[in-house]
Write a structure and sequence with these properties.
Pathway: One-carbon metabolism; tetrahydrofolate interconversion. Keywords: Hydrolase, Multifunctional enzyme, NADP, One-carbon metabolism, Oxidoreductase. Homodimer. The chain has 174 residues and is an alpha/beta fold. The protein has two domains: 111 residues, 3-Layer(aba) Sandwich (Rossmann fold); 31 residues, no CATH class. Helices cover 46% and strands 13% of the residues. The chain has six helices and five strands; from the N terminus they run αβαβαβαααββ. A three-stranded parallel sheet has the order 2-1-3, sandwiched between helices. A two-stranded antiparallel ribbon has the order 4-5. Strand 1, helix 2 and strand 2 form a beta-alpha-beta unit. It starts with 6 loop residues before the first helix and ends with a strand.
């Protein structure tokens, strides 16, 4: 029998958990404020909705989030320079590049993503983080948000804390 999952309830639970973790850090480091930069190229309406939600949720749990909105005529080199500047900014702890890029110029999005410092790669999309995940280095990996969110939904619905993986030949423990 199918089980209906209340995504809003799961989201609220995850936000509460993250807010608690952030409070623990701030108790140990009272001057710490988590900083998030969201980089948007162009003005896609669907991206605007996603970004608005990200900014709202970040604010709700005490993360200082900023939108870095760039023109749809930006060049590859200028976009990379923006990422490099955010990497060097100590007030920015995490960087999200909103995809897809809405640009008149040809931009290699994979190259842009790989410019993000792997320790600031909130979405877990850099080749370095993806490689760590593939090698099973889970203690040093930032998990990609969408698949991780799906796993959290399954965890919530089933109560399972570990998920099996299938490598094409056999089931592997996770």
């Amino acid at each position: 029998m199918a089980k209906l999952i209340d995504g809003n309830e799961v989201s609220a639970s995850v936000l509460k958990e993250v807010a608690g973790q952030l409070r623990e850090v701030q108790e140990k480091q009272p001057n710490f404020t988590a900083g998030l930069a969201i980089v948007q190229v162009g003005n896609r309406s669907d991206s605007n909705v996603y970004i608005r939600n990200k900014l709202k949720r970040a604010s709700e749990i005490g993360i200082k989030a900023q939108l870095v909105k760039l023109s749809d005529s930006i060049t590859q080199s200028d976009l990379e320079e923006t990422i490099d500047n955010l990497n060097a900014d100590d007030s920015v702890d995490g960087i999200i590049v909103q995809l897809p890029l809405d640009c008149k110029n040809t931009i290699d999005a994979d190259h842009v993503i790989d410019r993000i410092d792997q320790m600031k790669d909130v979405d877990g999309l850099t080749r370095e983080n993806a490689g760590r995940l593939m090698r099973g280095e889970l203690d040093r990996t930032v998990f990609p948000c969408t698949p991780y969110g799906c796993l959290k939904l399954v965890q919530y619905a089933t109560g399972a804390f570990r998920f099996p993986c299938y490598d094409g030949a056999k089931w592997l423990p996770y």
